[in-house]
Design a protein that fits this description.
Elements lengths: L2 H26 L7 H12 L8 H19 L9 H22 L9 H4 L2
Helix pairs in contact: 2-3, 3-4
């Protein structure tokens, strides 16, 4: 492959990334505050003492906060980059994962064990 071909491919990828960045920013932030969504997630994590270096449970909580913040930004809009339903499904999944990790952490559920097995 020639250098010119590679550079054209890179240019194409750069354009796609830029377009996606713009769409996501329209959905999750404000045109006058590019980092609004990140600032909000960071603030919520600080308030709730969510530290992703502490545990997998905190990582799942972090993802839950991200999805909740996204939902708050998407509600009442016609999003360009992500369906509201996808965000709601992701939010529920991360809540389930957080709960399962909390049970593993509390030693009430073991890896490979189902919820049915843990209640007997």
């Amino acid at each position: 492959m020639k250098q010119e071909q590679v550079l054209r491919m890179v240019d194409s990828l750069n354009e796609k990334r830029r377009e996606l960045l713009q769409k996501r920013n329209q959905d999750y932030a404000e045109t006058n505050d590019f980092f609004k969504n990140l600032r909000e997630v960071w603030s919520i994590c600080e308030i709730l003492d969510i530290d992703t270096t502490k545990s997998m449970e905190d990582c799942a909580l972090f993802m839950t906060v991200v999805k909740l913040q996204r939902y708050c930004n998407l509600r009442g809009r016609d999003p360009a980059g992500e369906a509201v339903e996808d965000t709601v499904v992701d939010l529920h999944n991360y809540l389930d994962i957080t709960y399962i990790l909390s049970q593993l952490h509390a030693n009430t559920l073991y890896v490979g064990q189902t919820f049915d097995e843990s209640s007997t």
